[in-house]
Amino acid sequence: MTMDRIRRVLHRPLILGLAAGAVLLLCPPPVRAQGPLHVAITNVPYRDVFAFLFLHVEALGTQEFTNRNASVAQKDSYLGFGLGMFSAANTGFQLGWKGTYQRYKADRFGLAKPDGTLHCLDLHVGGRYFPKYPTFGFGKWESGLAFRLTFSAMAGVSLFLPANSDINKLWSLSTDLTAGLAISTGNHPSGLMIECVYRPLSRTLNFQSASIGPFVTVLMKPALAFRLTYLFGP
């Protein structure tokens, strides 16, 4: 083997070695990790909330009043408004409170003249089933409709606020039961709730009536209505 051939054979590995060294100098290897690498998954199908604030309107129901002393009865539609709050626990069972104002017609009993209107304020605490994940849905998860089955049971007191009557009993125990659907869009649980609300307890009200006589006892019978609620998630 001649010297020129030997030089050519040695020259090629020398050039490759110099090129590899330049690459290592310009692009040093990554520093070894000092501890375990933790990865947090943030793209979950639910936004974290701590509690829901809600506003509701109650309508499409009737309230019947009867009078034990003079056998007078009245049944008319009524309107209600309210607000409240319930928790957003992962278990699906929530705790909450609400206040609801209702306006009733009771002019046949000589109550709350001159407009014959009875004003009532319910203050309730209780629980609600509101699941973290939808019961069913339509469309894509990010932009479709999500439906949650929900129901609640609350109890407390009803405060009667008449305009011009001598009321002997200003309050009564009360409760309401609701069941319906919560409707939201995408992965955010804020949205609308459509429910039936049922008040199973009869409520009594004692007052002095100018048209019927003193110490009249009015019985408010159980009532059924529809409630439309909007949920505000923080």
Explain this structure.
There is one protein chain. The chain is mostly beta strands. The chain has one domain: Beta Barrel (Porin), CATH 2.40.160. It has one helix and 13 strands. The protein has one helix at 3-26; strands at residues 51-67, 73-77, 79-87, 93-105, 117-129, 136-138, 145-160, 166-167, 171-185, 191-199, 203-209, 213-220, 223-232. An eight-stranded antiparallel barrel has the order 1-3-4-5-7-9-10-13. β11 (203-209) and β12 (213-220) form a beta hairpin. The N and C termini lie far apart (85 Å). 24% of the residues are buried. Residues 39-45 have low confidence and may be disordered.
Pattern of helices and strands: HEEEEEEEEEEEEE
Task: Give the count of helical stretches.
Answer: 1
- The top level CATH class name: Mainly Beta
- Major β-sheet annotation: 8 strands, antiparallel, barrel
SS content category: mainly beta
Question: Using DSSP, what is the number of strands?
Answer: 13
**What portion of the residues fall into strands of 2 or more residues?**
over 45%
- Tell me the CATH architecture: Beta Barrel
Sheet with the most strands: spatial strand order: 1-3-4-5-7-9-10-13
What is the CA-atom radius of gyration, in angstroms?
Answer: 35 Å
Whole-number total of structural domains:
1
Name the features.
single chain, 234 residues, mainly beta, Porin, eight-stranded antiparallel beta barrel, 1 helix, 13 strands
Short recap of the structure:
With 234 residues, the chain is mainly beta. 10% of the residues lie in helices and 54% in strands. Strand 1 and strand 2 form a beta hairpin.
